[in-house]
Amino acid sequence: MVRVGILGASGYGGAELIRLLKGHPEVELVGFSSRKHVGKPLEAAWPQLWDGALFAPQEEVLERAEVVFLALPNGLSMEIAPLALREGKRVVDLSGDFRLPPEVYEAWYGIPHKSPELYEEAVYGLPELHREEVRGARLVANPGCYVTAATLALAPLAAVGALKGGFLVGLSGVSGAGREGEGTFFAEVNENLKPYRAGGTHRHIPEMEANLGRVLAQGRWPRTHGPRAELRLSFTPHLVPMTRGILLTAEAEVEGHWDQARLEGLYLEFYQGEPFVRLLSDLPQTKATYASNRVDLRPLYEARTGRVLVFAALDNLVKGMAGQAVQNLNLMLGLPEDLALPKEGLWP
Amino acid sequence: MVRVGILGASGYGGAELIRLLKGHPEVELVGFSSRKHVGKPLEAAWPQLWDGALFAPQEEVLERAEVVFLALPNGLSMEIAPLALREGKRVVDLSGDFRLPPEVYEAWYGIPHKSPELYEEAVYGLPELHREEVRGARLVANPGCYVTAATLALAPLAAVGALKGGFLVGLSGVSGAGREGEGTFFAEVNENLKPYRAGGTHRHIPEMEANLGRVLAQGRWPRTHGPRAELRLSFTPHLVPMTRGILLTAEAEVEGHWDQARLEGLYLEFYQGEPFVRLLSDLPQTKATYASNRVDLRPLYEARTGRVLVFAALDNLVKGMAGQAVQNLNLMLGLPEDLALPKEGLWP
Amino acid sequence: MVRVGILGASGYGGAELIRLLKGHPEVELVGFSSRKHVGKPLEAAWPQLWDGALFAPQEEVLERAEVVFLALPNGLSMEIAPLALREGKRVVDLSGDFRLPPEVYEAWYGIPHKSPELYEEAVYGLPELHREEVRGARLVANPGCYVTAATLALAPLAAVGALKGGFLVGLSGVSGAGREGEGTFFAEVNENLKPYRAGGTHRHIPEMEANLGRVLAQGRWPRTHGPRAELRLSFTPHLVPMTRGILLTAEAEVEGHWDQARLEGLYLEFYQGEPFVRLLSDLPQTKATYASNRVDLRPLYEARTGRVLVFAALDNLVKGMAGQAVQNLNLMLGLPEDLALPKEGLWP
Amino acid sequence: MVRVGILGASGYGGAELIRLLKGHPEVELVGFSSRKHVGKPLEAAWPQLWDGALFAPQEEVLERAEVVFLALPNGLSMEIAPLALREGKRVVDLSGDFRLPPEVYEAWYGIPHKSPELYEEAVYGLPELHREEVRGARLVANPGCYVTAATLALAPLAAVGALKGGFLVGLSGVSGAGREGEGTFFAEVNENLKPYRAGGTHRHIPEMEANLGRVLAQGRWPRTHGPRAELRLSFTPHLVPMTRGILLTAEAEVEGHWDQARLEGLYLEFYQGEPFVRLLSDLPQTKATYASNRVDLRPLYEARTGRVLVFAALDNLVKGMAGQAVQNLNLMLGLPEDLALPKEGLWP
């Protein structure tokens, strides 16, 4: 049993971590904190949980735990992670603080970075691409929902050097905006649909571009196409009137001659044996991944335009957040990667 | 490991059983059948499941299993249950076929009963009231969502003889109507709310009345009030624009002098130690029980009218259907009653 | 053309008034105010409106208008109504300030009443019961959604002296809680259902009781049953995951011998010729009244219990708020009562 | 008063036509037909309408009307339109039968065309582009929701010859699939999101391409860029869990040097004076167009990629169907184009 704690248990990510970790046979959940709820019972904040345990002060959680999940707002993790590491704890950070080079982070997040030295050590926690690095990591930067979907959707094309550009449309349920996200009142979201942060301004863009560049740079796959200039992606997120779920629809501009068979072959090979990536012969739908840690993918060659469409569906709070964090924990602890993580969804 | 099979895996109840049983450590799921899907892979019918197993013919499932779940339409279970019992299988029936005395069944369901002799043997599978009987049962009649909510909401008052009458309003998500339920197209259900089968015509009414009468007859609780005439309940179901969840709001006409403290005392005592009944100090909400096997209850004394309000929330596909069936299975097998059954919900 | 102004145009009621009044052939909308938005264009607050007009200061609107709608929070109307009346304006107040006797108001709303003398003059603006009084009124107290539904549902039984008591369940879409109502974030309301202010604490209860008592006291209908003691209603509101619409389900305890034919006869006679009350032979559903000023009613005799069920559906922002206010305006101005008010709904 | 009839009043388009035409001051609605409902009262099929009129046989409607709306399935209009024209009626057809050259129609719809000779006469009823032709038309082919959105979104760029290609993502509410559309059960659509007919197979694609080619060919705008090869668009529709509303998100590949100011200038000039096109300075959202005949547009220059994003929102049953048909009717009759058509939406 490993002693695990959670800092920031007042948000959806924290609550989902509690739910998953309470069902984890190798984890002892030794505490969870929230400035807002400290001293209150868990049920007061989270009516779905049946547990009289109290929100603890942050220091107590840090002290008791061997591994700490940081489910904190951007800008806070960079202050707390060094303290935890200094005390010999291992850290899985769910914020954006260690996902990008500090100078890129500062440019896109508008927050001065207080622990730039840790970026080098931090391992980018997308297990499908960085499984080995995660195993030994002290500090894991756990990627978010849009980026996980976009990276997994396009990684095979990037790996072989075929990805020239892409127009990505992200469609997200409202829980992605957090528990009391701005502009998420029911009466204004229901029966409504809208883009937001359009025009190349969403801060997940540099992370997607970096991930796909790194796949190519890893050189693990035979590069079948010429060297790539820097990749520039267009990404437009939309808010959809539902609670959970992300669908990413990508149109990729590709180099070389493609057809449906070759495309499917590449994806099958790339994701062979992955415990949480399912390649469909039909189009994905978010509901099929509800409450599971799975990603459903479908690449489609569009002959009329010569472009490749890729669809990815996942649950933004599980594979796009807390589930992925537990997947990283399992790797860090040398446990089976899928321990305590559902591969199947809730329907309807 | 016990070999378990499911007949009728094309409906939501069947799918939910598959999901729960696949995660059950003492169960080997040896087959599932559906006339509609026989020979097809599970995923073709259920995109949330990641499993290449094929729907099997009914006979095969019956043959392989030691315990059989019947998730069949009313009228079919009464044909198949005797066959299964004759082969030495134990049966959990999710239909209405064995929940009521045959003559009452025929009057309310309009279906001639083909196995009336089995009614006597069938155990009514509401564990909170009939736990001991279920343990030894060969045939369990698993109650449905509205009846489970109504019975658990009013059982304490009934047990002490205080329940004189009740006006019950049931509010149900759409999944209660089945996978392709009549009148459940999205565009006509969304942003809509309607009563149905009003005026004392819903066939769950006699089951509720019988259950509450039986609680009194059991005599396990000190009767604090005089003998009761036959109980007559008013029950009005409504369709609500959501997928899962039932809320039951009951106004009980009560005998004797009540106040909030005495009321809460009765419920606390009655449900003490129950693994799946939670008494709230706040009002229940369906979302808190989402995907869990829990019932949330709240009795409230209304001083202005001298009536008692009781609110009950549950997930109609779990505690109101498949979860309760697994709870009964656990009892039948002498396993911990809560094995493989979530007590906590999914939020948001 | 009558010059009309709106104070409090930042809420849903105000916006709905603007929409209805812009389509009114006898109204010139001379201004609308909002403390929050003053000086900003209408479109900045209300993206559905295509109108560059600016939110004006309150005094300007008051000065320009002959008739003023007050769509203000409880407690504010009682300050502004006397000013407007003193300037010779006529007033339709959408708040609760003039709906109840000041001492009752203070007890239920917890707000000291600053214009108790105006209560006597204020006309209760439910046209179906007080049409003639509204025509000559200077100050109309426009009733809200639950009360309109409950009163119209039970008025016929009350009028003949047959109503002994009632258990009322109100089911409301989220817009009833206002634009940024507490506890109305999408992710927590969607796929959720909950009662609130249960136990006889909702402040619409005394208004319902008073209305039904007044119907009896009016003595316009032959009293077929004996004198009534003070009526006590039980009312339990619920929040339903939809935006617009109210369904009221009432179980009435009645005196005398009733059957379905007699019941329908009473309702048909009582509401004969009403432009906005439709009696259905089927059960009502909220969607059928969407964006209309109609109420759909259905009384149902429940033989098993001897009780009467009545169902009422309406759009809480139209007949339950802004539409009813315009209906009152039409009466005050001697115009056709249904001018510029839709009798038919939007579907789907 | 013009005598107008509707064939095919059992679908959402027909019902919306009835609602709009009943409020039209220059129209006498002389009949509506539906094979399914003939002889039944309107309310039996459409609970939102309060009207005892009966569904009439098709021949009766045809005989009484001067102008006929055909809200029929694809393949039926081509049989009935010639009959109506022969009798001297004018026709607005809401199906796809006269929108494409017969050979293209046959290739994409898989239906042999029975009235190919009428295609030449039919006027494509998108008023913003073909206002003058519609005025004199006997037969108008009324475009659908996706095509209206896509065409209006990209027409300005096409008109000046700058549009080289485009990746279009369509997001639609469920009512676009019709009253009992396949795969639109609430429990499977709610909390779900999915693409459909992806990969260049949706039959609105050739219509979009043809429309944009025609804008260029009209030559009404100064062509600022070189001659275009045939335009090939990628279009991927998605089903979103809401009832009404379409959002089109387009990434346009453009020729020439663009920036935000030049882009907005072009759109402002192109749509100057249009009664139903609103250019926003913010991003569109579908709810703002709910129940209105308006299209909200926003072009956005994306500097990082050099592409142009255009967002369009409309109500698929109004501007995308019945409202546009009434707009065409107004033009055909020489009436104000916006008569009886709401420019403003319903919120919330």
UniProtKB/TrEMBL annotation, chains A, B, C, D:
Pfam families in the record: Semialdhyde_dh, Semialdhyde_dhC_1
Pathway: Amino-acid biosynthesis; L-arginine biosynthesis; N(2)-acetyl-L-ornithine from L-glutamate: step 3/4
Record-linked SMART domains: Semialdhyde_dh
UniProt-annotated catalytic positions: C145
Catalytic activity: N-acetyl-L-glutamate 5-semialdehyde + phosphate + NADP(+) = N-acetyl-L-glutamyl 5-phosphate + NADPH + H(+)
Record domain Semialdehyde dehydrogenase NAD-binding: where: 3-137
EC code(s) of this entry: 1.2.1.38
Annotated InterPro entries: AGPR, AGPR_AS, AGPR_dimerisation_dom, AGPR_type-1, NAD(P)-bd_dom_sf, Semialdehyde_DH_NAD-bd
GO molecular function: N-acetyl-gamma-glutamyl-phosphate reductase activity
Localisation: Cytoplasm
Keywords of this entry: Amino-acid biosynthesis, Arginine biosynthesis, Cytoplasm, NADP, Oxidoreductase
Keyword Oxidoreductase among record annotations: yes
EC top class, as a word: oxidoreductase
Similarity section: Belongs to the NAGSA dehydrogenase family. Type 1 subfamily.
NCBIfam families hit by this protein: argC
Function of the molecule: Catalyzes the NADPH-dependent reduction of N-acetyl-5-glutamyl phosphate to yield N-acetyl-L-glutamate 5-semialdehyde.
Protein name: N-acetyl-gamma-glutamyl-phosphate reductase
Source organism of the structure: Thermus aquaticus (strain ATCC BAA-2747 / Y51MC23)
